[in-house]
Amino acid sequence: MTSLPMQHLGRLLALAMFLAALVGGGRDARADTAAAQALFDAARQLMAQGKYADACPKLEESQRLDPGIGTQFNLATCYEQLGRTASAWSTFLDVAGAAKAAGQVEREKVARQRATALEPRLIRLTITAPADAPADLQVKRDGALVGRAQWGIPVPVDPGKHTIEASAAGRAPFAKTVEVTRAGASETVAIPPLPAGAPARAAAAPATGAARPTSGAAPPASGAALAPVAGRAPAAPARPLMRRRSKGMMVTGIVLTSIGTIALLGGGLALASECSDPECASYGEEEEAGAGAALVVGGLIFAGVGIPLAIVGGRQVPVEPEKKAASAPAPSLVLGPRYAGLRWSM
């Protein structure tokens, strides 16, 4: 009896490993979607019970795993109920931007109305620095870098304590904590000239109780990465919401690829056991060899169809605009894990 050449066996094993990795990636994507849905459902139940402090982190994680306009809308509502007005305001604007990019006019309108209603309650914090501030002066708010473009600009922040720090090489550092809680209030923190002193050390962590950086807000102006709702322009376009091209196509491709892998392995084993000696070859062995070859061919066909389907179906694409209803009597707001819009009752 003879066996398959080693190079053929190596190629077969390499193909099997590639297909197994592809199937594993599809499982991870489905697991993320399932986890996002479970988190969303749990958060909605907590919100119904008034437990917003427990619901918001679950919505944040759900949005991270599987972004959706509905999840983001619920997150903005959760922030609003917690009194995190700046976070809610910026997140509603993100929802409006995503809805506009998807052509969902009504959803954009509802989100902008909610953001506009929050504006009179926003607390704004202004940070100023001396005109002759050193070129390497670094300013932080709650541990997040504040770029020079934001200096002197009233920036919406959540109510609570906020720690302002400033440092420069060869200068004594500056730090000040302010607490602002009154709706519509404005506070200014002026950074004084930093006296000469020991080289500034790494800034300490924000004081306990300082408000967290806003989640869901768009990145601020240049040099201000991770600053909470800093430097946000309401009219700036948001990145379009992304989704997988077709989950059904992706799952179908994974199934076909799995079947093809099994067929390839089975056919390869059958061919490996084929007897090449005419004296030991029998009619049954010839039938077995033919079946092995058929399995290999069938496996290649299934894998050849399944792999492109899985890749194309799992590709991220922008959410396409939905068709609008012909008439719109009696609208009511509907929220879901991947949508937020109006429903019409005829």
Structural summary, described in words:
- The chain has helices at residues 6-48, 52-65, 69-82, 85-101, 105-118, 247-272, 283-313, and strands spanning 123-128, 138-141, 144-146, 155-157, 160-167, 174-180, 186-190, 242-244, 316-318, 331-335, 340-344.
- The chain is of the alpha+beta class and 346 residues long.
- The strands form four sheets. The chain has a four-stranded antiparallel β-sheet with strand order 3-2-5-6, with no helix packed on it. A three-stranded mixed β-sheet has the order 4-1-7.
- The longest helix is centred in the N-terminal third of the chain and has 43 residues, at 6-48.
Summarize the structure.
This protein has 346 residues and is of the alpha+beta class.
Supply the key terms.
alpha+beta; 7 helices; 15% strand; elongated
Q: What overall geometry do the principal axes of the alpha carbons give?
A: elongated
Uncertain segments are 202-235, 321-332
Mean pLDDT: 75
Q: Order of helices and strands, N to C? A: HHHHHEEEEEEEEHHEEE
Strand content: 15-25%
CA(first)-CA(last) distance: 76 Å
Q: How many strands?
A: 11
| Major sheet description | 4 strands, antiparallel
Number of helices, where a helix is a run of at least 4 consecutive DSSP H or I residues: 7
For the largest beta sheet, what order do the strands appear in spatially? Answer: 3-2-5-6
- For the CA atoms, what is the radius of gyration? 30 Å
Helical content (DSSP H or I, runs of 4+) = 40-55%
